[in-house]
Amino acid sequence: GESEGLAFLKNKWVAVDPEKLRQTLKAFEKASRLNSGEGITLFDALRLSMNPRNLLGEAAADISGISHGEWLRTVFGRLQRPETMARVNTSRAFAARLRPYQQDGLNWLYCLHQMKLGACLADDMGLGKTVQVLAFLDALRAEEKKDKKAAASLLIIPASLLANWIGEIETFAPGLSFFVAHPDFHRPGPVPAPAAKELDGLNLVITTYALVQRYEWLREHRWHYVILDEAQAIKNPGAKQTRAVKSLA
């Protein structure tokens, strides 16, 4: 009728775009679901602030009115400037002396851990990504001992790097308990399949990209962290290797 496309608001008729109204109501419904319970997670807050349209729909950019607030501005600032983050101390069992930029890397990794966010450590070759990850695992080990909660992480690497990683663990982080899921380390027998309780008594399980596809128990276990060295190995989303890694719990 004549009132189609109009809404009576505050004692007057106002022109309304029905499609825009539908999108706006849908965005508010999505926002309400995100905020149900104890509110949205930090991860969703970061995603929402960077691209509200992805989470709330096409109308979100116009109606979301996102304000970072002082706290979220502080979080963004810390993420962009790792040197401003709180220093993370390694244990007495950790034998490497971190260079200043490596200490910044450890602080950054641990800060993201506390915020329940993942990380991509992309330092150039030769700058010590391995030792920074070992320092992070050392910090996790200290945290787990304090909280009395054991949980193993899974490290996936190219087979050519097995000796290097094991050598650096034994040199710099001898306090880390680890298991290598690779036949070369269990000859003449097969690689055993540890029970979940045995796995969580370890700090780290190490395997290769090829073997993730072979050992079902690796895919069934819920890992504290899944750490990928040479992560370009999963750049092809259609490859079996990529799908196997992404299926890890």
Itemize the secondary structure elements and their pairings.
Blueprint: E1 6-9, E2 12-15, H1 18-34, H2 42-50, H3 52-56, H4 60-63, H5 69-80, H6 100-114, H7 129-147, E3 153-157, H8 162-172, E4 178-180, H9 196-199, E5 204-208, H10 209-212, H11 216-220, E6 226-228, H12 240-246
Parallel strand pairs: 3-5, 3-6, 4-5
Antiparallel strand pairs: 1-2
Helix pairs in contact: 6-7
Tell me what the structure shows:
By secondary structure, this protein is of the alpha/beta class. It has a four-stranded parallel sheet with strand order 4-5-3-6. A two-stranded antiparallel sheet has the order 1-2. It is built from twelve helices and six strands. Helix 6 (100-114) crosses helix 7. The mean pLDDT is 82. It starts with 5 loop residues before the first strand and ends with a helix. A hairpin with a 2-residue loop joins strand 1 (6-9) and strand 2 (12-15). The protein has helices at residues 18-34, 42-50, 52-56, 60-63, 69-80, 100-114, 129-147, 162-172, 196-199, 209-212, 216-220, 240-246; strands spanning 6-9, 12-15, 153-157, 178-180, 204-208, 226-228.
Major beta-sheet overview: 4 strands, parallel
From the spread of the alpha carbons, the general shape counts as: elongated
Termini, distance in Å? 56 Å
**Class from secondary-structure proportions:** alpha/beta
Total of DSSP H or I helical runs spanning 4+ residues: 12
Following the backbone from N to C, one meets helices and strands in this order, namely: EEHHHHHHHEHEHEHHEH
Low-confidence stretches: none
Helicity range: 40-55%
For the residues shown, what is the average pLDDT? 82
Q: Which strand order do you get reading across the main beta sheet?
A: 4-5-3-6
What's the total number of strands? 6
Percent in strands: 5-15%
Gyration radius (Cα, Å) is 24 Å
